[in-house]
Amino acid sequence: MVLHTVGEPLRLEELAEPDPQPGQVLLRVAACGVCRTDLHVVDGELPRPKLPLVPGHQIVGRTDDGRRLGVPWLGWTDGTCRYCLSGRENLCEAARFTGYDLDGGYAERVVADERYCLPVPDDYDDLQAAPLLCAGLIGYRSLRLAGDPERLGLYGFGASAHIVVQVARHEGRRVFAFVRPGDDAAAAFALELGCEWAGPSDEPGPEELDAAIVPAALRALARGGVVVCAGIHMSDVPGFPYELLWHERVVRSVANLTRRDGEEFLSLAPRVPVRTEVEAFPLEQANEALARLRRGEIRGAAVLRVD
Length: 307
Ligand SMILES: [Zn+2]
Ligand SMILES: [Zn+2]
Fold this sequence. Notes:
Elements: E1 24-34, H1 36-42, E2 59-62, E3 68-71, E4 74-76, H2 82-85, E5 96-97, E6 109-113, E7 118-119, H3 126-129, H4 135-145, E8 151-155, H5 159-170, E9 174-179, H6 184-192, E10 197-200, E11 209-213, E12 221-229, E13 250-253, H7 259-268, E14 278-282, H8 286-294, E15 301-305
Parallel strand pairs: 8-9, 8-11, 9-10, 11-12, 12-13, 14-15
Antiparallel strand pairs: 1-2, 1-6, 1-15, 2-3, 3-7, 4-5
The structure holds zinc ion (2 copies).
């Protein structure tokens, strides 16, 4: 499925088999998760996608010799800049991203730099594993950047939150879910997965929070609390009184991932064990999957199934 012009639907096309360059592997795609970032790419909210582009950066695929590999958002870094050399390859200024700078997994075949591929734990089938590769990974990195909160707030209960809550509960944290006002299904889903409380995001929760993932949350924080903004694209952060930041409250973003995050999270996930809830779509229904995600109609994660 190919994006030719931002703002237009993806087109189903027959493409030539991609040709792996030295260091790259050719994968037969089995499943590819649909991420909110894919929506931002397709809708033209991110500045410079390669065009034409095959989107998708939560890819589970197999090599010709039968190995199963995961391809995440971070597809390549230079390995030489000050960020790469200091363990922060997620911030590399020359980084190339899968399904953005590089063709991704909304396809039957993909090539990927093998050094950035991740091992997929055997405990998961292809569909269930796909959302671990971005929703899970970015959620995990956000949780780490939130510090060591006893009380964690999740704003919005999408693919990432449905995984983060399981990890956070495994670590003994108390989790509060703030959902779109009126979205009772999301609130019920959050409670099912171990949130202690779920309610509308325009109202204060039952307790102060030590950390929250996303910004409207500043008002909900206890002293010293952290707000982590995990989206690659967000609406502007509105002005707020300094008093809300006082007492060492922190607002920060989380960008991309490192291979180390990937290895840590994918070894942790089966031990939690994280269970992903997925809604599967055939590859050729990628536009429908994106539309459902845009309307907030996906419970858990949307995944394209490639036969
Ligand atoms: Zn670099
Ligand atoms: Zn993503």
